[in-house]
Amino acid sequence: MSRPTRPALPTRDGVSASCVALPAGAWLTVLDFLCERIPAVSRADWHTRMAQGDVVDAHGEPVSPNAPYRAQTRLYYWRQLAFEHPIPFEERVVFQDAHLVVADKPHFLPVTPKGRYVQQTLLVRLKRRLGIDTLVPMHRLDRETAGLVMFTVQPATRHAYQSLFRDRLVHKVYEAIAAHRPDMTFPLTRHSRLVESERFMAMQEVPGEPNAETRIECLETHAGRARYRLLPTTGQKHQLRAHMNALGLPIQGDRIYPELQPDLADGETPDYRHPLQLLARTLSFTDPVTGQARHFESTLRLDWPTKGA
Length: 309
Prior knowledge:
The chain is α+β, with helices and mostly antiparallel strands. The protein has helices spanning 30-37, 43-51, 122-130, 155-166, 239-246, and strands spanning 17-22, 55-56, 73-78, 92-96, 100-105, 136-137, 146-152, 171-179, 188-196, 203-206, 212-222, 225-232, 278-286, 293-297. The radius of gyration is 22 Å and the shape is globular. The chain starts with 16 loop residues before the first strand and ends in a 12-residue tail after the last strand.
């Protein structure tokens, strides 16, 4: 059985259409279904969006608020938020050609839309700024992490670049600032098994076959802190943050390790004074399309913590 074809829907304000499948169920209308399955959007808001043509079917045709529910179909809509705190830091494009865009992401800016961030994300900002609807990130950085993120431009060559990351053919170098431990000898390599912790969002090391590896080098020291070079050979979630924490060297400004800090309440203004001191410094690989040796370097720098920070 062939998969349904996704309609060629344009982006709206840099946001691509999201898809939702309609399973078997007793909902009378599409509106009833959306209100139950995506309750973060109020019924009144869904009604308004549908009346404005912001919810469409698999043919790209608007679905009205009183449309009857039809199982085994698909709907498409464009995510939007009533309010987003503007993130007062700008991304910088460090490279662009017909196949790739490489951008320097500032701290606090998410890569893709999620939760309370849609317009204030690197992907949407770049789509609007460059006018390229087909941009897709090849890898992710945590919202708190700054540095290089690579995007592909053309669907036809996307798989070739995805294979680089899948086959671990991209050499990544990070930098971090954390406590200085005179009793520790560097460089060292941390091998461990990382799994999801019961503690919200966090990863933890457990016994078993290692699935994460990071080489750690100490570059310089200053006032009880050190600047470290981190070279991951695997890509587990929070790998660098978890490995540094496991060594007793949690990264400066980390709000998850060693202790999870309270998240912002709705409407609360973020505090940008203490960013996570973790930077995706360089990306290097052989371009699978052009055959060129690629090396990209972030223009951003980490700051030594001020006295009392």
